[in-house]
């Protein structure tokens, strides 16, 4: 295999769905355009709906064009690599037809019998598809076979375990690529580089110098068209179990002995194992839930969660979570990690703030008060970069200092050249690099942590709605920090 230009067939289950159209097709196009795919590739879309190759290619073209507001010319040759096969995931004949098609395409496109099966669809059939792919011989090739799975990977630990066991009948752990798209984001990947490639941070990266760490991922959008899924999931399962805990693990892990998937995973797993567990009775001391009511979104009046399409009018589902997590190990004992995430908040932003401890003695003041603590802010989205907050001299005023910011923005704000998370992850999967995918052990530990919270919340009805659309969440989320003498740094 050519390392730089992997040859493979990508089979997308759910090829007429939202994820394929919004993310996967544009990402495949960018890989192609940037010379990352050789000419030896094919994409096979499978889904229930009837389509011909031609009508499917038109869909792909529309989706790629919609992602390129610059109206750039797209080479027609690109679309000729796409094929469609109507598919019934429970009918074995569909698998045989797919098998024949893949064999023909292997020959036509010289793809060396390398196959990626990408499950971009409702999760109910993940297990069935994996088993049928194996039993019907689709993974039995001279090349490699990999399975890419979108979230949700189960809805609690027992269901995730069951799903995993089913998939593992057909694929080894090394062949399974569980997507957490946050791990494909440039600045999430940069957390390790900032920590481990700079002598100035790592010596301070512990409970002697850090007061607390805050991770915020806020969204302005509401639940939109996804009510049916979301009302059963909520923010805890949708964002905390995966994206938020993954960012926390990267921030808290020990330096791996090597930058390979096994070593990095084993350090992340140690963090998740060290998370202080709660009992249903203590959940309220550490976690706050919220649900948005009506309010203003970008100046427009919007309705509350319970009035959205497909949402129960008395829904107890949380659209906001804030939490205080403690990591009981030598490095982090006593340092709270605060997380918060929610829909219909004031801003769309993902940001990490590392707040350093105050100096043992203040010689300088800022506006009559103690100087501001040093902060390291990692901007994940929409800005991508780092800001270091320092204190510097205020000209001509003896003992007064003033806060200053050192900013670094990657790509100078040129978002067009920032690779999309899905583009990065698809390419990693083609190269067989599983570093930025979640291992089963991480998934299992995250579910076990989160399950205690959801059990406590299911058992007790919340007083919802408790935050206005367009705000930064319920008051209790602020009190969570205020009780510890901290506050959220605004984003
Ligand atoms: C997804 C969630 O995993 O992440 C969505 O299912 C959420 O509900 C999305 O909107 C947020 O991702 P991003 O990349 O926009 O921060």
Automatic annotation (TrEMBL):
It is an enzyme of class 1 (oxidoreductase). GO terms for molecular function: glucose-6-phosphate dehydrogenase activity; NADP binding. Its EC number is 1.1.1.49. GO terms for cellular component: cytosol. Pathway: Carbohydrate degradation; pentose phosphate pathway; D-ribulose 5-phosphate from D-glucose 6-phosphate (oxidative stage): step 1/3. Residues 11-190 form the Glucose-6-phosphate dehydrogenase NAD-binding domain. Residues 193-489 form the Glucose-6-phosphate dehydrogenase C-terminal domain. NADP(+) binds at residues 48, 88-89, 151. Keywords: Carbohydrate metabolism, Glucose metabolism, NADP, Oxidoreductase. Belongs to the glucose-6-phosphate dehydrogenase family. NCBIfam families: PRK12853.1-3, zwf. Catalyzes the oxidation of glucose 6-phosphate to 6-phosphogluconolactone. This is Glucose-6-phosphate 1-dehydrogenase. It comes from Sediminibacillus halophilus.
